[in-house]
Write a structure and sequence with these properties.
- The structure is a single chain.
- By secondary structure, this protein is mainly α.
- The protein folds into two domains: about 110 residues, DNA polymerase, domain 1, CATH 1.10.150; about 170 residues, Orthogonal Bundle (hpI Integrase, Chain A), CATH 1.10.443.10.
- About 55% of the residues lie in helices and about 5% in strands.
- It contains 15 helices and three strands.
- It has a three-stranded antiparallel β-sheet with strand order 1-2-3.
- A hairpin with a 4-residue loop joins strand 1 and strand 2.
Length: about 300
């Protein structure tokens, strides 16, 4: 009899463990809490995307009872563009991964949903005329505080969001590198980027000697940066235009794809080949000048 009671008790426990779960809305809340140390921008995006999921009737359903078809229907109804769908799929996948970790579900139903292939739109580098206008305008007194961030984005390929996190102490003048730490970068990895002579010259035009600490970007950076572009006559600005300009001129001059990949912090050369490297209209002469310290001095 004791043996039978033990078997029954173990069976009840097994059934409890098999059925133990929480509703999707609770799993979302816990998943967000577990990612509370992410960057503010990431946290804001997660809250925005998951808020849409919470409006779905699926939010009140237990994780263990949500099927791949349920997940597919949720994503299709909430995210209408391929980019939104991929991002929504990734976030929903992470919520179920959190559920598996806590024992609220046995598998991840999002795995069964095929990730659509995204066709990235080509971002063209700045034209030579746009480049000259931008640098010439940056040298004017009302825009001079933007010079360091502009130079680092243009001649080091640093992303706009990354340059906003940089401090002057992240520039190693002896080694001539910019050190991006995990808290700086989009991907969360470290990378060291060469400070070429043209960038060194441009930074010393801003201040000689340059500061040793403090933010690279001035206060009210976003508005200052927008006004600089507008005053330079570039009214239609593509995101990461300077990063794409850096990549195109880098490859045109040095013909070293692996070195470029390392400096840009990409895991492979695939993205460079498919989206970044548009060298239409870039001549060997201009590419050589682009990397010359004489190029920066022409704006004195």
């Amino acid at each position: 009899m004791n043996y039978c009671r033990d078997v029954i008790a173990m069976g009840k426990q097994a059934i409890y463990e098999a059925e133990r779960s929480v509703e999707l809305q609770e799993a979302i809340a816990i998943s967000l809490r577990e990612r509370s140390t992410r960057r503010q921008r990431t946290r804001d995006e997660l809250r925005t995307m998951t808020a849409r999921m919470l409006q779905s009737p699926l939010a009140c359903k237990k994780l263990r009872h949500i099927s791949p078809a349920d997940c597919s229907g949720l994503l299709d109804s909430l995210f209408t563009t391929p980019h939104q769908f991929v991002k929504g799929r990734s976030i929903l996948h992470s919520i179920f991964a959190c559920g598996i970790k806590h024992g609220w579900c046995a598998s991840n139903p999002v795995d069964a949903i095929v990730r659509p292939e995204l066709r990235e739109a080509e971002v063209l580098p700045l034209t030579w005329e746009q480049l000259l206008a931008l640098l010439r305008t940056a040298r004017k007194p009302r825009h001079s505080l933007c010079m360091p961030a502009l130079g680092i984005m243009l001649w080091a390929g640093v992303r706009p969001a990354e340059v906003m996190r940089l401090d002057w102490s992240d520039l190693d003048w002896e080694e001539r590198v910019i050190s991006l730490q995990p808290q700086h970068t989009k991907t969360g990895g470290c990378r060291h980027i060469t400070m070429h002579p043209v960038l060194l010259t441009w930074l010393t035009l801003f201040a000689s000697p340059p500061p040793t600490n403090g933010n690279i970007c001035p206060p009210d950076w976003c508005h200052r940066w927008s006004r600089l572009r507008n005053d330079a006559g570039i009214l239609h600005w593509q995101q990461d235009a300077l990063r794409h300009t850096f990549a195109s001129y880098h490859l045109k001059h040095w013909h070293d794809l692996e070195r470029l990949q390392e400096e840009m912090g990409h895991r492979s050369t695939r993205l460079l080949r498919t989206r970044y490297l548009s060298m239409k209209g870039i001549t060997r002469k201009n590419a050589a000048l682009f990397w010359s310290s004489q190029f920066a001095r022409r704006f004195t």
